[in-house]
Specification:
With about 350 residues, the chain is an all-alpha fold. It has one domain. Helix content is about 75%, strand content about 0%. It has 12 helices and no strands. α6 runs parallel beside α10 and α9 packs parallel to α11. The longest helix is centred in the N-terminal third of the chain and has 38 residues. The radius of gyration is 26 Å and the shape is globular.
């Protein structure tokens, strides 16, 4: 009889131990799932919706303010460049209206007008966002915690191999030398500084402000990428083949921003592409023109396709998965604390 009681007691103790083990296992599993959830990077395209201060109309207010500040800042740069060169404003305006056939990044005034004015998009957006509120300026760069120089530099190195080299070979050996050396010493330095800023500025506006606004409205990234790419294309004065090329390029920029959780990789591609063309044409190889051929379109599409595949491998190996901080969570905590 004693043995039976001991057996029953042991079974009861074992059941109690199992129950405690199950509870601890469940708690550990929930903590693990919560940790994994916190590590998951929010979608970049719809990221603004994560801010508790998000309102559908706020990006419109931001966009209007951006337009005002951009006109003021870009105008100031153009007027300043004209005054420095002792020229007149009409020559600068003709340069802008002439499209890529009058494109000039080779002289101080040309670089200031064509690159510097566009670079003013960055401070214009920063000030507009500060006034409109609703989110951090860092959130326009990525949903990983702002701009990542690591992602940008790594992407730029890859772009040097898969974008810069093919384009340079084409312009130098296939297109040939035009014999026109366009750079001035000052223009070369200014273009080297303002060129990357112009590319990054366009990414902030078209893949940051516009793409995220459309993504937050429609909540379907493919539509946002398609519409923002159409807007980007409409602002480039090319012929039919050129417009198709720009649209394909913008689509690649948008998809890369979506899958990499930010604009840095696309900005690296943009910088590598534009700066290669600027420097090659400035040293007399090829020319910048509003007219693109079918062969040019096929060549550019092939380069973009290769770089996109490289970016897919980068994502597979976790290059875009490092999270610095979740700006939305920090913003929301501060706002709740003030409430």
């Amino acid at each position: 009889m004693r043995a039976g009681k001991d057996h029953f007691k042991n079974e009861h103790e074992e059941a109690h131990i199992d129950e405690k083990y199950d509870e601890k296992y469940t708690e550990a599993k929930e903590e693990s799932e919560e940790a994994e959830e916190q590590k998951r990077i929010p979608s970049f395209v719809t990221y603004p919706r994560m801010f508790i201060t998000y309102r559908w109309y706020r990006p419109i207010f931001t966009g209007l303010l951006f337009g005002v500040f951009f006109i003021v800042f870009a105008g100031a740069v153009i007027i300043g460049a004209v005054m420095y060169e002792g020229g007149n404003i009409n020559s600068a305006l003709e340069m802008l209206k002439g499209g890529y056939d009058s494109f000039d990044v080779y002289t101080p005034i040309g670089a200031a007008v064509t690159l510097g004015s566009i670079a003013m998009m960055i401070p214009s957006l920063a000030i507009a966002n500060a006034i409109a509120g609703g989110r951090t300026f860092r959130s326009y760069a990525s949903s990983r915690g702002g701009w990542s120089f690591g992602v940008f530099i790594k992407s730029l190195i890859l772009a040097a191999f898969f974008v810069v080299i093919p384009i340079a070979i084409k312009l130098i050996f296939m297109t040939g030398r035009t014999g026109t050396f366009s750079f001035t010493k000052e223009g070369l330095i200014i273009a080297a500084i303002l060129g990357p800023m112009q590319c990054i500025a366009e990414e902030y506006v078209f893949r940051g402000l516009l793409l995220q606004t459309l993504g937050s409205w429609f909540r379907f990234p493919p539509i946002a990428i398609l519409l923002s790419s159409a807007a980007f294309t409409a602002l480039h004065p090319y012929n039919t083949y050129g417009m198709i090329e720009v649209f394909v390029t913008a689509m690649v920029f948008g998809i890369i921003a979506w899958m990499s959780h930010g604009i840095e990789a696309g900005a690296a591609l943009h910088v590598a592409y534009n700066m290669t063309i600027f420097f090659c044409t400035g040293f007399g190889f090829g020319e910048v023109s509003s007219h693109t051929t079918q062969q040019d379109l096929i060549f550019e599409a092939a380069i973009l396709g290769v770089f996109f595949i490289v970016m897919l491998f980068c994502k597979r190996f976790g290059m875009f998965e490092e999270v610095k901080k979740n700006d939305a969570e920090i913003w929301n905590s501060k706002k709740k604390g003030l409430a």
